[in-house]
Amino acid sequence: MTGELLVFIVLFLITITGGLLMLNLTKVIHMMMALVLTFLGIAGFYIMLSAEFVAVVQILIYSGAITIIMLFGIMLTKHTEAEPKTGWAKKGVVFTGIVLFFLIMFKGIRTISLGPQADDLHVNNTEQIGIMLYTDYVIPFELVSVVLLVALVGAVVLAKKDEKDEKEGEQS
């Protein structure tokens, strides 16, 4: 067994364990910590693929910022203790969907052809991403920033609306 295969198996187990824990835990905060474990396993896969920049972004953005935002959202919203129980039929459908997704992705990855430039993908990949992002994809990049701004403004408007509704309910 080669070292690369051993690292892959360890990262696979970390990622799958995090995903399964996230789906099966009952406390939302514990689910978020399991999600962080999954994100870190995925970052390890990026490092194995010589995509160090994407791995660092995965850790900073997903394992850090997105998780913190989700935790704040969870802590600032009201929750009821009663959680619906899922039956075996629903779990079977979900498991079947997961297996089908895995098989389709496995087949797609096995038959993909990256072309003649695939050998140079790991050389200066951060520079290549920057050049491509700010030349070929500058319009989609700016549109994403506008969408994020609209989402932020919408969240503020919804938060103010809920605040106003609570004040009206208290006065009644």
> What coarse outline follows from CA principal-axis ratios?
extended
CATH fold name of the domain at 1-81, please?
Four Helix Bundle (Hemerythrin (Met), subunit A)
CATH architecture heading of the domain at 1-81: Up-down Bundle
Strand content: under 5%
Which class of secondary structure composition applies to the elements?
mainly alpha
Number of strands: 0
What is the name of the CATH superfamily of the domain at 1-81? NADH-ubiquinone/plastoquinone oxidoreductase chain 6, subunit NuoJ
Element order, helices and strands? HHHHHH
Share of helix, binned: over 70%
Spatial separation of the terminal alpha carbons: 71 Å
Keywords: Cell membrane, Membrane, NAD, Quinone, Transmembrane, Transmembrane helix
Catalytic activity: a quinone + NADH + 5 H(+)(in) = a quinol + NAD(+) + 4 H(+)(out)
GO molecular function, one term: NADH dehydrogenase (ubiquinone) activity
EC number: 7.1.1.-
Question: What would the keywords be for this entry?
Answer:
172 residues, mainly alpha, Four Helix Bundle (Hemerythrin (Met), subunit A), 79% helix, quinone, NADH_UbQ/plastoQ_OxRdtase_su6, EC 7.1.1.-, Nuo/plastoQ_OxRdtase_6_NuoJ
Describe the structure.
The chain is mainly alpha-helical. The chain has a domain at 1-81: NADH-ubiquinone/plastoquinone oxidoreductase chain 6, subunit NuoJ (Four Helix Bundle (Hemerythrin (Met), subunit A), Up-down Bundle). 79% of the residues lie in helices and 0% in strands. The protein is built from 6 helices and no strands. Helix 1 runs antiparallel to helix 2. The N and C termini lie far apart (71 Å). The mean pLDDT is 83.
